[in-house]
Amino acid sequence: MIRPATSADAAFVFEAARRLASFGPPPWRRAEDIVSAEVRALRAYFEAPPAGARLLVADSDAGSLGFVYLERQQDYFTQAVHAHIGMLVVTEAAAGHGVGSALVKAAEDWAREQGHRTLTLNVFEGNHAARAVYAHLGYAPETLRYVKTL
């Protein structure tokens, strides 16, 4: 079952967010910086959800399995507002069982309900498992961001 998050989900969401750097970030990004930035955004959501944002949680009888954080963004080229997956996390125990795909499909449904025609997301280049899931669901890379540490 996928449902809107409540304040009772905060502890699960903050703990699950630790997996956001489990794939092994690039050498110039510290895993703890990635996690603390994402937890900071999630705390802000629980304190006062931004307009147009939504946090959905996937549950089973055994407990919570993952979450997806959705927000609105503005397209750089067209200036059109679209839906964006800011975070998607599946617990280690639920990985590979279709939970991530179900969360993406719920995100797509939410985006359609909001009247958006596009749903975007970012993924680290080295997160091969997530990239494979997104490609399987019909997502394609649009731009590649290059970084050089000076």
What would you note in describing this structure?
This protein has 150 residues and is an alpha+beta fold. The chain has one domain (2-136): Aminopeptidase. Helix content is 32%, strand content 23%. The protein is built from 4 helices and 5 strands; from the N terminus they run βααβββαβα. It has helices at residues 10-16, 31-47, 99-113, 128-136; strands spanning 2-4, 54-60, 63-74, 81-90, 119-121. A 5-stranded mixed β-sheet has the order 1-2-3-4-5, with helices on both faces. β3 and β4 form a beta hairpin. The longest helix is centred in the first third of the chain and has 17 residues, at 31-47. It is globular, with a radius of gyration of 15 Å. The model has no long low-confidence stretch (mean pLDDT 95).
Class computed from helices, strands and strand pairing: alpha+beta
Find the CATH superfamily. Answer: Gcn5-related N-acetyltransferase (GNAT)
CATH class: Alpha Beta
Q: CATH fold name, please?
A: Aminopeptidase
Please state the average pLDDT score.
Answer: 95
CATH architecture: 3-Layer(aba) Sandwich
* Biggest pleated sheet: 5 strands, mixed
Structural domain count: 1
> Which radius of gyration do the C-alpha atoms yield?
15 Å
Q: State the end-to-end CA separation.
A: 46 Å
* Number of DSSP-assigned strands: 5
Layout: helices, strands, pairs:
Blueprint: E1 2-4, H1 10-16, H2 31-47, E2 54-60, E3 63-74, E4 81-90, H3 99-113, E5 119-121, H4 128-136
Parallel strand pairs: 4-5
Antiparallel strand pairs: 1-2, 2-3, 3-4
